[in-house]
Amino acid sequence: MTVHYLQHVAFEGLGAIEDWCASRGHAVEATRLFAEPLPGTLEVDLLVVLGGPMNVYQEDTYPWLAAEKEFLAQAIEGGTRVLGVCLGAQLLADVLGGSVSPNVEREIGWYPVELEPEAAMVPGFDRLPSRFAALHWHGDTFSVPPGALRLAKSQACPNQAFSWNEGQVVALQFHLEETRDSLRLLVEHAAHELAPAAQVPGSVAPSWISSAEELLSHEAPLESCRKLLFELLDGMMGA
168-183: per-residue pLDDT in tens? Predict the structure, then answer.
C-alpha cells in the first residue's frame, strides 16, 4: 500500500502516522507544499492532509491553497481514500461544501473527545472508545459538509470529526499523531499561541489554551493516542 501526504509547514509532519506506515510495510510519498508543487496525478491507497498554522481562506497569502483544494476535489472524485488532520480536516470540509470559520475560543491542549453514536457505523471509529483524550491545537472550526456524518465533539468545539461517503473521507480536528519529538517541534514554533506558564496573581488564563509545560508534561497521553491512531488507520484501510 502507498500513503501520500501533503505537508503545509516543515514543523508539522506525519508523526506517528509514519510509524504506522513503517510497521505495516506501506510505502510513503510526500508533497511539501511550502517548497514544491503538487503532483499532476496521484495513484495511492491513502492521501493524508496534515495540519498547519494557516487558514483555509488565506489564499492571498498562501496561493497554493487554491491549487490544493482543486487537487483534493479531484482525488475525492477519483475515489481516493483521504484522511485530513486539523487544517487538513478544514480543507476537506471546505472542498465538500462545508464552511470554515473561527471557533468561539481557541482550543489548545489535551482535552477529551466524545464520539457520537454514528461513529460506530464508520470503519476505524468503531474500534475507538466513546471518550478519550487527544491533542487540540486550532482556532478555526468547520461545519459538517452536506451528506457527511458528524462523528465527534469536545466541550470547546462541537465538530471534531466527520466521515463522508462511508469512510472514503475522514476528517479529524484533533490530533492523535503527535509524538514527543513532533510535539516539542510544534510547541517550539508556535509558542506565541500558548498561555504563560505562570499567571499573574488575580489574572485568568484563557479557558482552553494550555501552557508549553502542560502540553509537554510526561502525563500527556501520547502512547494511548498512538494506539488509537493505529486502530483508526487499520480500521479505515480494512486491516
Answer: 999 999 999 999 999 9
